[in-house]
Design brief:
Number of helices: 4
Mean pLDDT: 90
Radius of gyration: 36 Å
Number of strands: 31
Low-confidence stretches: 1-18
Length: 441
Amino acid sequence: MFKRTLLALALTSVAGFANAAVTSATPNVVSLEGAVGQASVAVPTYTIRLAAEYAVGDVFVITLSGAEFDTTSAPAITFAGFTNVPTVGLLSKTASTATFRVTAVPSPVEVFSGKDFVLNGLTLKTTSVTDAAGDIKLSYAAKTSTGLDLDNVGTATSTVVTSKSQLSSSATTKLNAVIDVENERKQFTVGNDSITTDTLVVTPVVAAAGTNDAVYTGATHVIKGDFSWMESDGDAGIDAAELAAAFAATGGADTYTSTINTAGDSITVVVADAAGNTAEAMTGTFTVLGKANAKAPILPTQMFTIDSAIKYNTAAGAASTKTIASASAGAWTLNGFDENIVFMPFDAQYAQSINVSNTGSVAGAITVDITAEGKTYTKTLTATATPKATTNISGEVKAFATASGVMGNAHVKVVVNSPAGDIDVTGVYYHKADADRVKTK
């Protein structure tokens, strides 16, 4: 009889260690943007399916990770599956825990295993939810009144809230024109949008969240680059008419208003939503004059960026803005070679040596831009980049600088209509009095 009792106790002990409560919840998906300003964020029902028997004095702790409880939160336990419910009271509460104690059990004794404790009444501190995206979880652990583990092998954990950003924006079609050297760098090669147009598409996105949704009201897109080529009437700066001729922002039912800054390096497009919480893609079309137009300027190779800000109303009705990190909006490249000699002095004290080496088999026309005192002078040289040879363009560049009135320090760009991998440019200047040579490229 004694042996049988010991065996029964041993089996009961092993079975007790195998028991484990199982938790479940249907997570609330909360908008990081829309939830701003809410008094608190609700936690859905959190259910603990019990797998052991509880007695008076047993304690269980529900622990929060990923956020903080609201100070006014009033967690409480209700029951499911019980015929006669026990009594459970809140023992203590912190920013991340709620501790409960069983204070009474029914008589006759109710079986706990297979039935549910249901947690209600929890709310989260709003800023703790909106400060970072991710899953917010509750976990369950229980102990007997004497401190022994109860109803848990490991920890039962369930996600109760997932916070996610609703608002984003990106350049879904980037500028990619190739400036055509054979057409004096005044238009693009065939194969882009056209020889005179290139298109940028910026797409804002408002993802569905589910709780405390943000309501889209518009956007502001700032395209940054060198837009000096838009100036066509000889006046200082780019006026509204020149901007309208060179750039158009369109898309869906929204209203688009474009402006350019005085420096000519930033176009701002303000988008007013006209379709009721519908974020629409903006298509920005750049149009150059092209070689056929006598006023057409030389187009600069360059990189473009896009800065966006999405305007919205929070779930509480407050107007707000989300800034999107600056990103690439594409580039304009050259169907040939270009090199910058960032410093080259042109005055009586110095001599210049500029050479173009061509290791390939394709001869290329050579164009030079000289920039000094805020002005740029451009000329296609008589000399060409001869295949399998080095061409000295020093004399022709010097004569062009003199004819242009350049006397002093300048920036020289050398453009060659040959495959870029075949061309190399070297630039050296030296002081005539002491023959001190300086290589700048």
